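Follow-up to my post from last week.
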Amino acid sequence: MTKFFFPDLGETMFDGPTTLEPILAEHPFLKGMKKEHLALITGCASNVKWDAGTYLFREGQGADQFYIVRQGTIAIEAFSPAHGPLVLQTVGEGDILGWAWLVPPYRWHFDGHATDLVRAIAFDGKCLRTKCEKDHELGYELLKRFSEIMSQRLDVTRMQLLDLYDDMPTKGIRRK
Amino acid sequence: MSAVASSPDPMFPRPYRVHRVTKETSDTFTLELLPEAGHAGFAFAAGQFNMLYVCGIGEVPISISGDPGVPQALVHTTRAVGAVTKGMEELKKGDSIGIRGPFGTNWPVAEAEGNDVVFVAGGIGLAPLRPALYQVLASRERFGRVVLLYGARTPEDILYRKQLKEWRADLGLEVHVSVDRATRDWRGNVGVVTTLIPRVPFDPYNTVAMVCGPEVMIRYTVMELERRGVAQENIHVSLERNMKCGIGFCGHCQHGPNFVCKDGPVFPFSRVRDLMNQREV
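User reply:
Got it. Predicted complex:
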């Protein structure tokens, strides 16, 4: 999975940056985008924060956002009546979180639970979808980047499904 | 990578007695063994393995997981998966066991000096890496960042939990653990161990990586390390094959031109890269 960092970003960005554009331009997910596209995307972005223990989103809710995580960890969970919340994956600093905003019916499929204080840049999915419909080049550019994230997530999910760690005794013992 | 010389007759087991059996997780345990009277044990290098013979049942290869600085005591952690290892799990303090070894190549600990060191372990793959961790942490000042990325099935399957906490607190080992499945009681990462690689700070251009775990995990780990910028020649992996004699004589563990027991189990990845992608060699 590719991870994204903000190497030069301090807390000062929360004290009132005039625009998120220079910050977003440095993020690997958006790096290399045309300036006019970046400006369109920045127009849909805002800083957000969640306290530990709160939910960013719940399964079934409308998914009209995605996030670039700046700080903290989010547990992606499914609720099981028998076992309570089961953590499927954790997402942390630099990660992209959420693509349900791209896929009808635009609903979250899992819960997103902040395990500690989370700061992120949120992107308004409705706003972006409208802009992508008007500017297909922007839409294609975003879709390419999201496809890479989805592909990486699919790979690691497949590896999780393999239950790999059960496969290795420790040095060539095969059921001996 | 050099192999440490084994006993004069590598096919003849030396007698050891069980000093302690520790249950690590639901299906893994650690044996601590001391030499029986008549011999003083032997030195070993991090990454090597022994053949352990349980009287009347059979013999299995198991990596050494103890401290190379304390060679008198042999430590082996393994999973109870078949007749021999289940018999081994039943051993009690004072019981006898036969040991042949040490066999094979070692982790390049000395060569890693001056660099960052990244250990990547999956499941019980942490056991063969632990001797290298002992060595690196014993001369911590000779290395840059020392990072352990460890993947386990569930929080209950984490090996050496207490020791990892101590190493993290006292010796500056950066430990990052990720599990495949968890409930909310687990406060750490969830996901395969490869997802940790891009998150951890180390200098990829001055890093030696040592990787041990299931072979699929090794392949994907190497891909992530390379994506991060670690050169293939600085990535070392420990392989598993069906080893019998331990000295490259019987051919059971042949892997292309290599005998894993003699030319491995620790290989520079560049040497086994092409073989790992072949279904049959």
